[in-house]
Amino acid sequence: MGCSASASLKAAKAQEAKKKAKVVISLTPEEKAIILETWKLIEPYQRIVGKTLFLRFFKEHPTYQDLFPEFRGLSRDDLKSTRVLYGHASRVMKAIETAVASMDNIQAFSAYLEDLGARHNKRALKAAHLMASIVDQ
């Protein structure tokens, strides 16, 4: 009744989506040097930078705060003082630190990102949410 054909089509579409998702970005030695120098400026302050980024993100996109169960329903003042925000912000900054440290080992970083993505898959995150976090509007 078309079930095997439908399953084959779904599998082919999933494989194609996976191929499209694997984009390799190569950096020049100069770009790597700029990233390393910039990270050296941020690294000592990564905890406060991470917290500031999240606070700004939630200020600009208040509905996105509800995507984080641990932040749901918190006022801005409560959010500023919660240790949970510091913890999540610290983990995000550690992910950036891992990216910087892995610039010459894309395979290892790709595996890390796939694991991170799998852990975040259970949340209702969409591409638009992620783009909003990195693109000024």
Blueprint (SSEs and pairs):
Layout: H1 3-21, H2 29-42, H3 46-60, H4 76-81, H5 83-101, H6 106-120, H7 127-134
Helix pairs in contact: 3-5
Task: Please characterize this protein's 3D structure.
Keywords: Heme, Iron, Metal-binding, Oxygen transport, Transport. Belongs to the globin family. This protein has 137 residues and is mainly α. The chain is 70% helix and 0% strand. The longest helix has 19 residues, at 3-21. The chain starts with a helix and ends with a helix.
Helix content: over 70%
Low-pLDDT sequence parts: none
Mean pLDDT score: 82
Distance between the termini: 48 Å
Question: What does the main sheet amount to?
Answer: none
What structural category do the secondary elements indicate?
mainly alpha
Global morphology: flat
The second-level CATH architecture is Orthogonal Bundle
What's the β-strand tally? 0
Strand content: under 5%
Give the H and E element order.
Answer: HHHHHHH
